[in-house]
Records
---
Amino acid sequence: MEFPVAGSPHLSGQNDVQRIMAQVMLALLPGIAALWWYFGWGVIVNLGLTSLTAVVCEWLVIRLRGRDLRPVITDLSGLLTAWLLAVALPPLLPWWQTVIGTAFAIVIAKQLFGGLGQNPFNPAMAGYALLLVSFPANMTQWLEPSVLSGHLVSLNEAWQAIFPGIPPHPQGWDAITSATPLDHLRTELSRDHMISEIRREPLWGDFGGKGWESVGTWYLIGGLFLLWRGVIGWRIPAGMLGSLFVTAGIFWLIDPEIHPSPLLHLFSGATLLGAFFIATDPVTASTTPRGRLIYGALIGVLVYVIRTWGGYPDAVAFSVLLMNMAAPTIDHYTQPRVFGAREGDDGL
Amino acid sequence: MTEVDYRKITLDGLWHNNQALVALLGLCPLMAVTNSTINGLTLGLATTAVLLLSNLSVSTIRHWVRAEIRLPVFVLLIASFVTATELVMNAWFHELYKILGIFVPLIVTNCTIIGRAEAFASRNPVPAAITDALAMGLGFTAVLTLLGALRELIGQGTLLSGAHLLFGEAARAWEFSAGNDFQGLLLAILPPGAFIGLGLLVALKNMIDKGVDMRAHRAEPSHCRTPPVISHS
């Protein structure tokens, strides 16, 4: 890409943190709408809950640190963290777990490290990992998408389920929740069932689980919008999706009956959300051009490895956190050559 | 060295040079066993006992040990005391001994003990060395117990569970429980909980120090507290 610089006077750019965050949130809207369409009002209640918690937590910490509150609240980064966490959480998670996850994301993962720009780990994913490790039962219990259950959770039902904990179905939680497609696939494979056999079940659509694949597609559309606006670069999503596709493809070609197709991997779980919205976080990702490709590619490989041989059905959060840890090292080894310096020179 | 400032030694050990919060020594057992109050307390007491014996003996023999071989001698002494402690625990606190497992013998590698032997006991008379061992040991125990209590409370909603293992059957009633419905934050019990918990405790200590400093400055603007002496161990 070229950036020709003309002589002065220059117009100042419009890109500030607030604008970037707002565009990411805008791009997230189609995905949120799709989640709402398939999983009901719980998503919206969670969104409100995480947003409120995030703002309150930021306000508290900023007060403690004696900083100016306005720029921190208005840069929207805390709200974006809240939104990303909300779309990753099961729609009817008990309210206090949602609050704990958000508070951890904002207070421990973001502000204790010094706030926006200083945090080594993606706050939303740190909050998600905390909840997944601490409350595995609640966190792996998802609603069935409405296309399967034929029932959309209403606002009142969602409220009752999230706050007092009353299940929206007279027969209890089990009647309306089910394992996610990836979780289901995992269980069935461990019982020696063939993929072709598993895929005949009604919960599967064209690529991934019914409902889930559409949500993924809407994330993809939001991601393409971000690419078009230049908010995110192509390297991290391309690296992540490409390497996940290739890794899954190799195993799939070896034996398609025990290894799900690469398309299933791309359209299941949080792959597309992760590739465009989470791995691309400018603070915690690698910053050099080559580094971003490597960073994305390693996330893709890790996602495959953890999904296939790890203890959890989905792996985007853990992969992103692990690679956050590796990002400074990747940056160190992929620094672009200083113009005029030769390979192996130290620049001057 | 003629005048020994016992007050300073005690305050250093318990607070200003707390081995867990300031020197950040002995983190391996600190992280590994503080998943409950009683585990933390027991390991803290065992460490204190070893520290006391090692400081006592190192200080006693300090004039006869040549500088070139002092470290092997210290290690030998510490290892013997750890073995003795281990045998005592195995005999009288067998259940606890089984729970703490490898971390009892690992007291020998706790940097606090060799650190105090080298930095303090080998240069100071016996009474000062004993005071130092008690203060350092109790400071370390306090942090272990506090961290254990926090992790136990957040992680499984109990306090002092297993107290009978240390204090006898009568202590069974001491246990506090938030009930069986309590859904603990499992992360607190897992290793990350130890790191985050210790980090928060260190922050709390620094916050208190800062508050005390500020109050001192306000009362007496010209006064400037000398920075705490940090031993190099």
Note: The first strand of chain A starts at residue 142 and ends at 143.
---
Amino acid sequence: MRKVAYYKGCLASLSAKELDSSTQALAPKVGLELVELETVTCCGAGDIHEAEPDYYLHLNARILAYAEAAGCDTLLTVCNVCTLNLRQANWQLKNDDALRQRVSDNLERVGVPPYSANVEVRHLLWEIAEGEGYELLKQSAHKGLKGLKVAPFYGCQILRPSKLLGFEDPDRPWSLERIIEACGGEAIDYPAKIKCCGFPIIQAREETALGELIQPIEQAKEAGADALVTPCPLCHLSLDAWQSKLKAATGQDFQMPILHLSQLVGVAAGLEESELKFKRHVVPVAPVLEKLEV
Amino acid sequence: MSTHIAPAPGSSTIELALKIWRYDAETGEKELKRYEVEAPDWVTLLDVLDIVKDQQDGTLAYRKSCRMMICGSCGMRMDGAAVLACKTRMYDIAKSGHEPVISPMGNLPVLKDLVVDMNPFWGKVRAVKPWLDPGYDEVAEKERIVSQQQMNVIHKEALCIMCGCCVSECNSMESDPEFLGPAALAKGMRFVGDVRDEDDVERLNTYNEEHGIWDCTRCYFCNERCPKGVDPRDAIAKLGAESIKQGIDHDMGAKHAKWFVRSAMTTGWLRETELVPKTQGVISAIKQTKFALGLAKRGKVPPPFPPHVAERVGEARALYNLVKEQGREGALGIVQGEHALGRIEFTEEAGARENAPEIQPGVEPPPAEG
């Protein structure tokens, strides 16, 4: 078991608790021991970066500092937006000694442990798409997905900007496909899998956001997908919860089930409904489960 | 080979094939045509197009000028991704046997083959008032010296060559064609951040309008595609930060961003349920009641009381007060950690500058020697 600091972020803590419970249940099966941090806050979701950038940097440094203080060299994330925000702040801090010193001094002044920039931020997707995590995943996914047609949806901030993320080719990613296939599913290909779900502007510019949101759902449906899987709870929220608004706006009722990455792998690994919590989804997941005879 | 692009003595040639979308706006005819080319191993995509036009099909239309990544004419898509043709070397592609598909840039009307109508692009650039407004008509007797530190805030924006590669894949613009977009907004930041410009408040008010900065969906395609390292999304974030610093925060996007700050200071976590009324206002939020109730049934609307409060949230509040005193607000906060001249790589052959002083945002550079 590898000890990693676990950063849930806002959604998995509250409105997407199913992401947290499925991640916690899956982690030991893929060789990860999740260390809960003493105290952390929101990463700012790109919004604090835009409103108060220096405060954004300090909030993220505080999260990284508590991960370091817990003796972990890896901070595990389960959200694209958390991943980018934490990696961006970490890059700033690693890249500039004077800046890191000022931020670290500020942290100490308010009672936070200093940060020496010895933590790497990694998404769960990366942990299970290669190496030991991938080998354990293959062993764990004994129940399989029985040829279920799954559309991988990456979203943006796990691919771009690649200079801050850099796990895979942002135009030809492979990690979700590899995991779907390792679990016995069939990965569906479609152009919008690397595009935006519209979530960051879904409240301020709903019409523009819906114009983005419809693309992956429509294309995945046309390509014959039974379900769509995403590594990001913000993508999940817009794809799942805002689907009803697409119906109102376009008359099309897609009924496309949206799964968190940890849920998809969790189904293949035989997790219980109490851990997967599909009842918390807006679009019913029942058709998928029926197909898998779960 | 009977071409002006001849292999240099001692260099070898490569064979490659590529497919080009041919299109004529006048007739509406569209065809994906395949071409085979033998070329020197150092060729770029632009060189290959030149060979095709010179030797095989003189009707092929594309734009070019400088051939050295500075004029911004030859933006086009290779396998769906916007590139500068003159920056794209073909050796690895040829050796892999892959046959790339070349098509015009996205989000702009196609005129012929790989040539797009740049008028919508230039219209948006003009809309951001792309010139310096020093706030006086008569030039002062003494020139105004701007420090490197001050220019660091816009060092990336100043690199833009207006090729349109960022606009090509802008996800917001696909959905809202009126969005000012990454190139125009990066140009806007280039002047908002320039200490010599006296028009920043007026500019920010304009950029805060309906199809301005808060339309950006943060897909980061612009940063990924820019061949010059401008990072237009970062420029848009800088404009947001400068707007909020100046108190220009009437847009729902700005209110949305400010609520995250408020949430972090008070509970540490995003106060999700209050985000809608804080962003859209109470009336709009009430109109969303039916939708919200649907989500509430699935536990997607966590009750605001009792609030979900992070342990020792006082630290987050104290940090806020502390950083406010240190004055790295606005764009200056965003460029921290960037090494302003870090993109220039000096090689041993070209004269190494391993010990060159690094000039960083927010830090006065050391005085020049001698």
Note: Chain A touches chain B through 73 residues (CB under 8 Å).
---
Amino acid sequence: MTDATDRPDPVEGTDPAPHEAATATPARARPAATAPDRPADSRTPRVAFRDARPPSGVPVFEVGGVSVFYGDHEAVRDVNMTIENRQITAMIGPSGCGKSTMIRCFNRMNDLIPTARVTGKIRYHNEDLYGRDVDPIEVRRRIGMVFQKPNPFPKSVYDNIAYGPRVGGFKGNLDDLVEETLTHAALWDEVKAGLKRSALALSGGQQQRLCIARTIAVKPEVILMDEPCSALDPIATAKIEDLMEHLAQEFTIIVVTHNMQQAARVSHRTAFFTSDIDEAGVRHGRLVEYDETARIFSNPSDQRTEDYISGRFG
Amino acid sequence: MGSGLLDEDTAAALPEGRRLEGRGVPWRERLFQLGLWASLAVGVVFLASLLVYVVVEAWPRLDLRILTHFPDIIDPSNAGAQSAVMGTIWVIAFTALYCLPTGILTAIYLEEYADPHRWYNRVVEINIQNLAAVPSIVYGILGLGIIARGMGFGQTVLTASLTLSLLVLPTVIIAAREAIRAVPQSIREASLALGATRWQTIRRQVLPAAVPGMATGSILALSRAIGEAAPLLLLGGLAFITFNPSGLDSPFTVLPIQIFNWISQSRAEFISLASAAIVVLLVILLAMNSLAIWLRNHYSHRW
């Protein structure tokens, strides 16, 4: 399953039918909405869905007309979406569709790439995230990030957790904070005997949970996760998913994933991205459909979403 | 045992051409290996015979007097090289003091702050590469003209260490840059994503991880500086110094100059004296290189 979704190029690969679908113009983008009676033999993965909580009315992010450029290349074009408070929002789509690029806009990690440029508006609690007076350091303290490959610092478990608070000028009892954080991340029992041991000695799954713990140690409001389980085995993945579910009670989580079943299992809302080719032959990432997860996976309104989740391409 | 699948004659029963036996290592491959060993031997044999030759030459004078006595032009049988050993230590210590901070800060700028697309950063980059290839005698001329005469520091420890700093600076910068570059980008991203500033990231993550590599590279660069005679010959001349340096403004001699000095004497005693000084120099170099290797093995990070 994971392998199938890992296939690199949805547009240039495979058979012509999905190719057509992927390059379809927005004009014919929503034909399926008029066809609710989907045949029962649809190859949509059968999983239990999480009900989206009713929109709280307090969106955390409002994304309006966002495009991301790398140099002259428009990697992501015209994304519009709203991220709800304390929900898990999944971003799915084939490789190269711009979902990782998009998630890195939310904490201004794209600033670190000299050629990257973001246009459009991202409002974070009614504040322009890319406003002139906004300090990216401050943004990243509120909006944490977990990366694809576990990347603990080559330091002790304790120092990994304490790093964020320390650089943020935390005044208080670090020992308590570390214990509280690790307990919160369901990692305390596994590491309490070896807090001074190197974090690199932990297993991959533990390292990734340590990275999540490290992120929540600075008490952010939002956690961005860029394919947090792609380097992990199924058991470690399940633990991370449990943790995400648990953390969603307090944090707003946005997760990029290649694994559609993971999106279906953990998220409340799902955004499907794909890439299409414009008249000049240049590929752009696009947000195709964004809805409650249950609806995306059982009754998507766009043919391309339907094709992707049923495994017909990507 | 002895029955079923592993019966010995099952192999024999296989038709010819299906066996696993190969035709052995082809002669080309053997020849290639032989070539590899031969080239290796050239280096090792030369070095070993050089060492043996020097030690044999130095044997009559290889005792502590080389360290405790001062050079003596009248009575070589009781002379030593203490002033040169002390001079070497003084010069190299101050060289390290000048070139390490400068080199490491330059490397940090070039790796972490400089935008490689800007023309002035590219100019700096090309300059450093070229400086590393400039012959050391040119640095000697530079030191003599600008530092000794132009700045008026004279032929002193200060001038010598500044000149040697310039000489090894490109090497230090290149080594430090490589060490910084070896720190994975994911570590920087992790730090920045936690709300650390760029400086905090460099100070708390990049530098600690890069220190072993920087130290190794820097020590090797300083080893090179220790053995340099050419630039210092221009600076210190062939001055016959029979006292230890007393400060930065003190005249000096260093081991390579002292060795050069003695070798050019005609009496046989001076030749063994020079060989003994070579042994001392080699011991210092080997000690420094061992320190570099030890640092690399003990503090290197595995990601």
Note: Chain B has twelve helices and no strands.
